[in-house]
Design goal:
Strand content: under 5%
Shape: elongated
Distance between the termini: 20 Å
Number of strands: 0
Radius of gyration: 16 Å
Length: about 60
């Protein structure tokens, strides 16, 4: 496990709580999109609703 460098840590310390939340929310959105893309690659014949159902189930249970 690597730890952030001092520059990154100082930037985080200077961020407002709302800015930290926005960054967190953007990361969650990006992670869900990456997982959605992976599911589409793994199950190319599934329709969008089936992909969303699988994504929701995986996200809810936090399983890969």
């Amino acid at each position: 496990m690597s730890f952030p460098d001092s520059k990154q840590t100082s930037i985080w310390k200077k961020m407002t709580l709302s800015a930290k939340y926005e960054l967190f929310a953007a990361n969650i959105h990006q992670l869900r999109e990456f997982k959605r893309i992976g599911l589409k690659m793994k199950f190319p014949n599934d329709n969008p609703a089936a992909i969303e159902a699988k994504l929701s189930r995986l996200w809810l249970h936090a399983r890969p």
